[in-house]
Amino acid sequence: MPDSHSLEFELTTATPTAYEVLEMQAGEARNVLVSFDALLDAGVKLTGTPTITSATDAGGTGTATLGSKLVTTRPHTCKGKPLGVARGVDFAVSATTAGDQYTITISVANDANTAETLVAKVRIVSVSA
Q1: Cβ–Cβ contacts within 10 Å for residue 31, how many?
Q2: Do residues 16 and 22 make contact, with C-beta atoms less than 8 angstroms apart?
Q3: What residues does each domain of the chain span?
Q4: Per-residue pLDDT tens for 3-38?
């Protein structure tokens, strides 16, 4: 079954922020997948419900609506690489305003021996249809 994510972000150990700006058309609803794989040791999984917030960058006038905030429950492919169960975060984004840029902040816990809360940021820009 192919993945249904139209926006994919892959975090790296060097930068737990995906600075790649991905575009979506104003008014679209898109599914987003963020891979935390590079930030997790072998055998460690993400747990709980992620907290995901959106902030409109300076000069922006719209807001992004976020929904379906989940730790991955099945294997996926992200940026052409396999992503195991509970090694990424899924969410939906919609209702963006053309020209606005959004910084999406994702906080999620893991089940490491010393549990951590990982925080990542991704950027989405909304363009005219």
Answers
A1: 16
A2: no
A3: 7-127
A4: 566 777 777 765 666 556 778 888 888 899 999 998
d(CA 45, CA 41): 9
Which overall architecture, per CATH, does domain 7-127 show? Sandwich (2.60)
- Here the tokens at position 92 are 């939906």
Amino acid residing at 34: V
Tokens of residue 100, six digits: 């606005």
- Provide the whole-model pTM: 0.85
The residue behind tokens 């104003």 is: 26
DSSP of 22-83, one letter per residue?
Answer: EEEETT-EEEEEEE-GGGS-TT--EEEEEEEEEEEPTT-----EEEEEEE--S-EEETTEEE
